[in-house]
Write a structure and sequence with these properties.
Strand order of the largest sheet of chain B: 1-4-2-3
Number of domains of chain A: 2
Radius of gyration of chain A: 23 Å
Oligomer: heterodimer
Distance between the termini of chain B: 105 Å
Helix content of chain A: 10-25%
Structural class of chain A: mainly beta
CATH architecture of one domain in chain B: 2-Layer Sandwich
Largest interface: A-B, 85 and 60 residues
Strand content of chain A: 35-45%
Number of helices of chain B: 4
Helix content of chain B: 25-40%
Number of strands of chain A: 30
Shape of chain A: globular
Chain lengths: ~400, ~180
Amino acid sequence: MKRLSFLVLSFFLLTSLCVGERIVITKSGSGESSFDFSGFSARGGVPGEFFTSLRKNLLLPSMFREAPPSSADFRVLGSAGIQDGKLTVTVQLVDRAQNQRRFGKRFTVDPGQAAGLARLVSDEITEELTNRPGFSNKRIIFVGQRAGDTAKDLYAVYPDGSGMVQLTKDRAVVLAPKWAPDGESFTYTSFRGGFPDIYRQRVNPPGRKKVSSASGMNSGGAISPDGRKMALILSKDGKPELYVKNLVTGAVVQLTDTRMAAKSSPSWSPDGRQIVFVSGHQGIPNLYVISANGGQPRRITRGGGQNLSPNWGKNGLIAYTTRRGGLFQIAVMDPASGESRFVSPADADYEDPSWAADGYHLVASRTIGGRSSLYLLDMQGKGAKSLLQGQGNWYMPSWRP
Amino acid sequence: MKLFLRIFSRISLLSLFILLAACRGNGNQSDISDDLYSDDLAGMGTIVEWDEDALPDSRATIENMSPVDSSAFAPVYFAFDSYTVSPGEVVKIQDVAEALLSNYGQAVILLGHTDDRGSREYNLALSERRTLAVRELLMSMGIGSDQIQTLSMGEESPAVAGFDESAWSLNRRVEFQLMQ
């Protein structure tokens, strides 16, 4: 009988290991899940690196946590090892209560790809359990200032803190990097030429281009969802106003004209028809929405505090910075109802939110005692997690779509 | 039972081989394309500039000029979140206008700043609004628009370090750099 069980087990195990095989039992709604990792074996350098990275990434989403074998919802089973100079990994996810497999795959990759594979597997499991895309393999770009150095430059990092890349080497003031909606390029404001100009930097092949350098200030460059236009703030006509530049023809159209206001931070609605931006009409900055073709701006934030740095997500919700009780906090607004919810803890200043690819989590900078670092938040306000901390100041994040 | 076991094990073993073969047939046993691993940002350390000078820079005012000693001209200070020049500060702008009108310098750069509270991006716009308010007053005092260059820095270049009002009030400012 032992032999029989062994064969049956082997059969199922191999079925699951076979590439591309995925057994989908059910799709749960909330995706709240706990994992037991004790059934995964990885020995030594590279396999250990894979496992450490997989565990770290799977525990980043706020709906996931680790639990003991006796109470975990899912058992993470499998192994990582080196065979013939390659990293060979099998991963299974088994629903403990129902004893059903939710995920099973086998991979063979170069050892240098251990961390990348771990992020990918984490994203696949996350997608399986939450029905939302994972964010582990999406780099966050941000402004960085290393400890002991006044120079500022752009950097990129994976949410697990790995794969840090320096994107510019200008040693100049740089602001507000923003991914284009296709994730192939990003825009930012840099003083590298002495004045605030807008640059667009392409990922592949790498390169950059000055896309706005009118006299005065050029800032807030944000590429439209169709990739054909850029919203921006220019002061060339005497005061900072919102404009839209056609990236194909180069034509620039002024959208706002308010004598007494400073404007900043445009962000496109997911359908590209509207733009949310910051305007200090009555001295205090608030969020306004305007048609991408112009017209009358509509104020969408209420209350006395400052409202800043909107990021209009693909989920239709606007994340922004708002001042409450002397602290800057992150709030999420449904522009249809005008209702907002605070999503950051009141233990420090949180600013400049950017939606994750899953439309559920956010990255923001957290500042305390003059030090800024990157934090993970979620739209339910369930706690904050440190993503990147230490040696320097890291702020103004934008998460790759 | 024995017969059943034997048949079953044959079938199972056969299935195993078929499955293994199927797996092997799938190549590298991974359905992930190589470019998912390719670190497409890794190459960005070297930046290729393209069309670098394609855009005309209309900031020619101060080209070929040199800074002259401007220490006598005190910065104009502002209230929190404000770009209104208070009556008490106007005299500082008058000093600069008079200097330019008497040819102490041909042009002036207005350097706008904010304190470090709030959004850096909004603070950039706020500092620009401050320099433009000073610019308007200079123009009302007879200085030509071609003699004025604005350069707004937001909160990026504080005059004083610190996290209280005594530091903040000194950082909310527009400085003057006269050029010859």
